[in-house]
Design a protein that fits this description.
5-stranded mixed sheet; alpha/beta
Length: about 300
């Protein structure tokens, strides 16, 4: 609303100045009209006044349109501000904020993998439930997306160095505890998980605060076998996993092709052996046929000789 007051004040000042000039020139016109000393000057002044009056009316119309447009746009800005405030109030609830994080996580998994390779809200045997799992050849990767933001927000809103120091200390404590919980709850090799889990941080600003301010946080995460990712780094993490899966599929397909070629080679060798046996049989049969044919010809010749004796 302050911006609207400033715009109206500027427009009013311009109009007031223009009106004052108009009044002074009108007064001068009346003085000249009363003296009637210079008709040409009176005529020129009259034309100037009429032109200024026309210009003043046009300025008033333009000012009215500007004020109306500014009021409309300020109304939109105020509505947007109210919506942003409502969203901030909405996100103050950790549960609701976690639901949004889960939805973003699900959308990213859907972009990269078919449904059979991932699952939301996976429940382990002891009852703990992880936000998502990613199924790979090496095992399941647990992914947590419920990051505590309260102390980070306090740190950002701090007005003194002492408040900032306390907020940062509490923030580091929150991160370490969350990392420890993830490592304890979602890394269960006996249930088919890999030997690490993923902590998805839903904000780049928070992620950079983690890796920028306290090297101990990163070493603590690695010690607990927890990979900390932001929206951007999680994208590349999923891309690497996808490439690995594609490589495994290519390797598996190549292995199957080699097995088929080996089977064909074995069948070819066996067929060659059987063909050789058949060839030998045919050769033997051909030899037998030749011998039988010769014996038959000899027998036929003797029969012909007997016929001649008659």
């Amino acid at each position: 609303m302050d911006i609207l007051y400033i715009v109206i004040t500027i427009i009013a000042t311009v109009l007031l100045t223009t009106g004052l000039v108009y009044v002074l020139m009108n007064k001068k016109f009346r003085e000249l009209g009363e003296n009637k000393k210079d008709d040409q000057s009176v005529m020129m002044l009259n034309q100037n006044i009429q032109s200024m009056q026309k210009d003043l009316n046009q300025r008033l119309d333009n000012a009215a349109r500007v004020v109306g447009q500014v009021s409309k746009e300020l109304g939109s800005v105020q509505e947007m501000g109210r919506n942003m405030q409502d969203l901030q109030n909405f996100l103050k609830s950790p549960k609701l904020r976690g639901n949004i994080g889960e939805q973003v996580l699900q959308d990213m998994l859907e972009q990269f993998f078919p449904q059979k390779y991932w699952q939301m809200q996976y429940k382990f045997k002891e009852g703990q439930m992880v936000d998502a799992i990613l199924k790979t050849e090496q095992g399941m990767i647990g992914i947590d997306s419920k990051f505590p933001l309260e102390n980070f927000q306090k740190m950002v809103k701090a007005e003194t160095e002492e408040e900032t120091r306390i907020g940062q200390k509490d923030f580091v404590r929150d991160v370490k505890k969350h990392v420890q919980d993830i490592g304890k709850k979602y890394i269960i090799p006996e249930e088919g998980t890999v030997d690490f889990a993923v902590m998805y941080v839903p904000s780049e600003a928070i992620y950079y605060e983690i890796i920028r301010n306290d090297i101990d946080l990163q070493s603590h995460a690695w010690e607990k076998k927890v990979l900390v990712v932001s929206p951007n780094s999680f994208y590349y993490f999923l891309k690497v996993i996808l490439m690995g899966m594609q490589g495994q599929r290519i390797e598996s397909a190549t292995k199957k092709m080699m097995e088929m070629f080996q089977a064909i080679a074995r069948d070819s060798d066996k067929f060659g052996e059987e063909l050789g046996v058949m060839g030998r049989h045919l050769t033997n049969a051909h030899g037998s046929f030749d011998r039988i044919e010769k014996s038959y010809n000899k027998l036929s010749s003797r029969i012909d000789q007997v016929k001649l004796l008659k």
